[in-house]
Design goal:
Largest sheet: none
Helix content: 55-70%
Distance between the termini: 54 Å
Number of helices: 9
Radius of gyration: 21 Å
Shape: globular
Number of domains: 2
Length: 177
């Protein structure tokens, strides 16, 4: 026999809400924001792992164990979901291809350049690398819609790739496999 769902009046619902404290009521704002952001990153990481397991079933065990490598570093505080999702995808792709996950991802290099730009303006070659990484992560159309124009240029062909490789090594995460 099916039970009917209990219905509540507006007043009863209001009264019930008062009984339960929200995350923001329990913790100071800074902590609750950090916790909320961390849980968002967990959710993104889990979804990306599930997607890659469906796409690469032969690697599902390795991908299942990859969760610990996807955890956000302090660089990822207060960033968009798109940046973190791109970070996760790049690491999962490396795992599937059997590559090391120690080198910094494009998202990590982008965030590092962003942090550096707050202290001092980026030199031309770094500004160009930043632009290229931003365009890679957010896409050409979105980059243009955000009003971000091409900044700087390469002094010689392939310079930004060389610079990117150097920054990847400097920002490497030795705790990842």
């Amino acid at each position: 026999m099916k039970q009917k769902a209990k219905t509540y009046s507006k007043e009863q619902k209001k009264e019930n809400r008062k009984k339960f404290l929200s995350l923001y009521d329990l913790f100071p704002t800074e902590f609750s924001n950090l916790l909320s952001h961390t849980l968002m990153c967990f959710d993104i990481a889990e979804k990306e792992i599930e997607n890659y397991q469906l796409e690469y079933p032969r690697h599902s065990g390795e991908l299942f164990d990859a969760f610990r490598f996807l955890m956000p570093s302090p660089l990822f505080r207060k960033i968009s979901k798109r940046v973190f999702r791109n970070h996760c995808r790049e690491l999962l792709e490396r795992i599937v291809l059997g590559k090391s996950t120690k080198l910094a991802t494009k998202a990590e290099v982008l965030l590092s350049l962003s942090e550096s730009s707050l202290d001092a303006p980026l030199r031309q070659n770094y500004a160009y690398l930043y632009y290229r990484l931003f365009k890679h992560i957010f896409g050409k159309k979105r980059t243009e819609n955000m009003g971000i124009k091409k900044v700087g240029q390469e002094l010689y062909k392939g310079e930004y790739k060389k610079l990117f490789k150097e920054l990847q090594k400097k920002l490497r995460q030795d705790w990842r496999k």
